[in-house]
Amino acid sequence: MLAINEKSIGIVTIRSLVFLILFISSWCYAEEQSSSAQINKLIGTWQVESVHVDTGATRTLHVQFNDPSLIGRMLTVSADKLLMNTPGHKMCTDPTISSKLTTAAVLIKDTMGGRGLPPEIPTPEDYELPLTSQSTVNVMWLRCKTGGFGADNPNWLLLLPNGQLAVDWHDGAILVFKRLPADVKPDPSFNCAKATIPAEKTICGSIALAAFDRSVAKSYRNAITFYKHVENTKGLKRLQSEQKKWLGERNACKTDINCLQKSMEERLDAIDEGVNDPES
């Protein structure tokens, strides 16, 4: 009969335990390094260039394709946080990212939801993304200790073949960002060379505020076109009157950046609500 040495068993057990601890530690370290490497790819400032929704949706979507209230919004990525200035945004703190290979079709099917009528499953082509259903994609799943980009946590991010960044937002919308160069200049809807009042000069000094200004201008023009198309003279006059009043309120913010952004965010909401009010 084989003799069993209790001391030897103890040594083997301790060695196995040490090996297991070292293995787990190295695995966790590798995961941490992988997450850091993924975040490092994204560090910088990004701006929404296009907004994508299911063009074959069978329900009325709150977010529209290339919605002007979202075009121009900013995403700032650093090693320890991500911040997006979209409605309802919350700073993502202590981010970690894990990656997973899949196809674009599976990603859309699993995360964007279905439809009430056939075909029930949308495709990347329905979202007009620069991908095909068969495209293999390396999806980055973002988890935040606190905050995030909407109701979902984790959110997914995807570096597109053209260098843009697609981000799962909410209400079935996908935001596509472009990376901003370090020397980018603010570009509002008006000529900064002719800016005379403090509010305009402050907008001309901020990329984020300039983008909000362009969004308000675009939404306002779209609303004018809408009221003219439906021959709603009353609604058009109300819109123009409210815009003039709002400009005075915005200008009263002077150099207060938070006040200016809040004013423009509220104006975007007001224009949208006015257009969608059947009695306007």
How does the SSE layout of this entry go?
Elements: H1 6-42, E1 44-52, E2 74-77, E3 81-84, E4 90-93, E5 96-103, H2 104-111, E6 136-143, E7 146-148, E8 155-159, E9 165-168, E10 174-179, H3 198-204, H4 207-229, H5 233-251, H6 257-276
Antiparallel strand pairs: 1-2, 1-10, 2-3, 3-4, 4-7, 5-6, 6-8, 8-9, 9-10
Helix pairs in contact: 4-5, 4-6, 5-6
Quick structural overview:
With 280 residues, the protein is of the alpha+beta class.
Structural features, described:
With 280 residues, the chain is of the alpha+beta class. The protein has 6 helices and 10 strands; from the N terminus they run αβββββαβββββαααα. It has helices at 6-42, 104-111, 198-204, 207-229, 233-251, 257-276, and strands spanning 44-52, 74-77, 81-84, 90-93, 96-103, 136-143, 146-148, 155-159, 165-168, 174-179. A 10-stranded antiparallel β-sheet has the order 5-6-8-9-10-1-2-3-4-7. The termini are far apart. It is 41% helix and 20% strand. It has 2 domains: 41-179, no CATH class; 192-276, no CATH class. Residues 18-32 have low confidence and may be disordered.
Provide the descriptors you would attach to this structure in a database record:
10 strands; 280 residues; 2 domains; alpha+beta
